[in-house]
Amino acid sequence: MLKLDNKPLSYDRAFTHAGIQYPANWLRLASLEEKTAIGITEVANDPWYDQRFYWGVDNPKQLNDKPAVDEDGKELGFTQTGLKTQWSATQGDIAASLLAPSDWRVIKAKETGTNIPSTWKTYRAAVRTACNTRQTEIGNAADVPALKELLFGEATVIKTKEQQKTDADGNGVVDSDGNAVMETVNDLDSDGNIQNIANPAIATAWPTPI
After folding, report:
1. Distances (CA, A) of 41 to 6, 27, 84
2. In whole angstroms, what separates CA 92 from the centre of its chain?
3. Alpha helices of 24-169 — where are they, by DSSP H?
4. Contacts of 11 (CB under 8 A, 6+ apart)
5. What's the pLDDT tens digit per position in 173-197?
6. 49: helix, strand or coil
7. CB-based burial of residue 127 (10 Å sphere; 0-12 exposed, 13-18 middle, 19+ buried)?
8. Which residues contact 194 (CB under 8 A, 6 or more apart)?
9. What predicted TM-score, i.e. pTM, was given to this entire model?
10. Under 8 Å between Cβ of 110 and 98
11. Secondary structure (3-state) at 89
């Protein structure tokens, strides 16, 4: 991050300093010496954190609902909603959005006394089941990192395994007590390729819309 007069500068944006107007492309074209000459410094960017789950770096939001209290620990008579409740409600909203396009089929069937096609019945039931399952999975999340991984983790992960460390000669490494020193390594297939497997820590998938 570039700063001037303790204020951040953005590339491709004009700025004014000491009465001089600098064009939008100046930062990209200027040399380090030219930037330094007018007082521009480069500082590390602020650490990134997911604001949906954290108040700040290493400062997770409240996971479970709990009674609100004042500074003296006295309950205030209402409940502070935790992430589990919030994200569980979000699953209901997602389910409603998936069901909405076919709601007219249900209404038509009731008004005309006809049947809803079995394909749509199956799909709508699958949406409701997925919603209930995801809400249960959310309720079982052990902590905030687990909840975030559950909802936004990668669909596949590299398969790993535990094995004893070896030294340069291929001999197993042991600690001072003679116990094997273990390490986590990628579990390769017979051809030496990295194996990807379904991520067991993510939530049940929503059914594919029809």
Report:
1. 9, 12, 42
2. 19
3. 26-29, 32-37, 83-99, 103-112, 118-139, 144-152
4. 27, 28
5. 999 999 999 999 999 888 889 899 9
6. coil
7. buried
8. 158, 159, 186, 188
9. 0.72
10. no
11. helix
